[in-house]
Design goal:
The complex is a heterodimer of chains A (about 250) and B (about 300). With about 250 residues, chain A is mainly α. Chain A is built from ten helices and no strands. Chain A has one domain. The longest helix of chain A has about 30 residues. The two termini of chain A are about 30 Å apart. By secondary structure, chain B is of the alpha/beta class. Chain B has two domains: about 220 residues, Rossmann fold; about 60 residues, Alpha-Beta Plaits (2-Layer Sandwich), CATH 3.30.70. Chain B starts with a strand and ends with a helix. In chain B, about 40% of the residues are buried.
């Protein structure tokens, strides 16, 4: 195996070995969200004309779990390796910056997509979904997972203790995902919050992903794809630069 | 012989601390080289710079002719480092750890060599044990094994025997000696000076980021006065005046006489015979590296 494939294998094995914590738990959490919110709101909220609230909720929950778990994978792996010191095993071999980046991002996206697929499978028991544009579903799932994987690398490199990582997780990732239209259409918001939501890149990830299911969305799907693609390009460039200069990894 | 390691004018500062203050050093292929110095002398920083973990402020380092910055992938393929810190990945077994480490170096099937390393480091029985369940000494052996998976031409061991029992220490050294005989260049840092003395052909001593002594082990040992003779006289006997003048110390009825060389013992014994001195004990003490070390560090 080459450096890239081994690092990818190791990163996947790492979350696979603790699958209950890394996959089963977030799937259960999302299911609980679905049960509670659909029970409370199903009869009171109608987002798009032809779509039930529960059906509307499912793609949002899938994408939210996908994003949060992709971030959790690369960020927790890096911070743990840094704190325990075993990151040295990845820094001593001839692994290039790009290989390092690609392996961590791909492993993060894989965990995110596995969790997202798990949430989708479980929720299919409760709701019937349509699949208007499957390619859009796939593209947004991959890009969303990769963006959060790259963001997780940045957080993992920057944070020096678990407390700092919690800041990233709880003050950036969770608010951005919760306030991105998972549970509501942004058109139901007052104008100010509606406009503000357009500055949240996660909104476009979820909106574009949802378009793949229903063929309707808050923003035009190509705009969402453009925003998400641009985010990925910027984060990739920034992360590769951090890795190249060895920021907080090589003294 | 060409240089396995070439270090030219390397400096490194961490905030207000000058960790490396201009290091020039060539280590030839096949050498067993010792890097000694007190804590904070810069040994680990120098090794880290060689491994690419620390970027020097100035100067350059090469492993087997490959620059560790501009040609880092080629340099790292030729270098194996046993880090000082006892680190491990708690997710994996010993075998998984070594397979993953092999993969990082692009080696697909390394089973035969991994088995050989496990055997030589007495780890075969622990191959399928999770890293968390190993004792400290065992974890250190795995660290050594990880540094060897890619059969590096140059092997750097940063205090590999700290906290390791005698049996394992001997096992590790016989394995490392064998690797050295097979042509691997070995660089060792240790606080056990007797280890450096018995293993290393050449030694550099570091102090405050500078090399303060660099020579073959034999030459360094010659720097101190050589052998000394310790004499304990029988009760009531006094040391003859001729010998008293060359005595270096006296403590608890024991006299210490420096010897120029081993043959120098004969006139001493002659003087004792002439004076009719009876001895209770006599011991020839070889110079040791510790003495050299203390002297160099105090200079």
């Amino acid at each position: 195996m080459g450096g890239f494939s081994t690092l990818l294998y190791k990163e996947v094995l790492r979350f696979w070995k603790v699958g209950f914590q890394t996959m089963a738990t977030p799937i259960l959490t999302s299911l609980l969200y679905l049960l509670i919110f659909s029970h409370v709101l199903e009869k009171h909220v109608r987002v798009y004309d032809s779509i039930s609230y529960t059906a509307f909720l499912v793609p949002g929950l899938v994408m939210m779990s996908l994003l949060q778990n992709a971030f959790a994978n690369s960020s927790s792996s890096l911070i743990q390796s840094k704190i325990t010191g075993n990151i040295v095993f990845m820094l001593l071999p001839p692994i290039s910056y790009f290989q390092f980046f690609a392996a961590f991002v791909l492993a993060a996206a894989m965990r995110g997509i596995l969790v997202g697929a798990g949430v989708l499978l479980v929720t299919l028991w409760f709701v019937e979904l349509s699949w208007q544009a499957p390619l859009w579903i796939l593209v947004f799932a991959l890009l969303g997972g990769a963006i959060m994987g790259a963001f997780g690398i940045i957080a993992g490199i920057w944070a020096e203790k678990f407390d700092q990582m919690a800041v990233f997780q709880n003050f950036i990732v969770v608010p951005l995902t919760f306030l991105s239209g998972v549970f509501y259409s942004i058109h139901s918001l007052p104008l100010f919050w509606q406009r503000l939501s357009h500055y949240n890149p996660v909104f476009y990830m979820i909106d574009g992903f949802r378009y793949g299911f229903f063929g309707v969305s808050d923003a035009p799907p190509f705009i969402s794809l453009g925003v998400v693609g641009a985010c990925f390009a910027v984060l990739t460039a920034f992360t590769l630069w951090l890795l190249r200069i060895g920021y907080k990894l090589r003294a | 012989m060409s240089a396995a390691i070439r270090i030219e004018g390397v400096t490194k500062r961490f905030g207000g601390v000058q960790a490396l203050a201009g290091i020039d050093l060539d280590i030839a292929e096949g050498e067993f080289f010792g890097l000694l110095g007190p804590n904070g002398a810069g040994k680990t920083t120098l090794i880290s710079a060689l491994a690419g973990l620390v970027r020097p402020d100035a100067g350059r380092l090469m492993v087997m002719g490959h620059d560790v910055v501009s040609d880092y992938r080629a340099a790292r393929r030729r270098l194996g480092v046993v880090p000082q810190e006892l680190v491990f990945d708690p997710f994996f077994t010993v075998r998984e750890t070594l397979q993953i480490q092999s993969g990082y170096f692009g080696i697909r099937d390394n089973t035969a060599w991994i088995d050989e390393i496990l055997h030589n480091l007495d780890l075969t029985e622990k191959a399928d044990t999770n890293m968390r369940q190993l004792s400290g000494g065992m974890k250190r052996r795995v660290l050594a094994a990880q540094a060897l998976v890619h059969r590096p031409a140059v092997i750097v061991l940063d205090e590999p025997t700290a906290g390791v029992d005698v049996e394992l220490r001997q096992g590790l050294w016989s394995f490392v000696r064998r690797l050295n005989r097979d042509g691997h260049t070995i660089v060792l840092t240790t606080h056990y000076l007797e280890e450096a003395e018995s293993l290393c052909g050449r030694i550099a001593m570091l102090k405050q980021g500078r090399i303060v002594a660099l020579d073959t082990t034999a030459n360094l040992l010659r720097r101190v006065s050589g052998h000394v003779l310790r004499l304990r006289l029988a009760a009531g006997m006094a040391l003859p005046a001729a010998l008293r003048s060359r005595m270096s110390e006296e403590a608890g009825g024991e006299y210490v006489l420096p010897l120029e060389c081993c043959e120098d013992i004969e006139p001493v014994l002659g003087s004792l015979r002439e004076a009719g001195c009876r001895l209770d004990g006599i011991e020839i003490v070889k110079p040791d590296l510790e003495e050299v070390f203390v002297r160099v560090m105090n200079d």
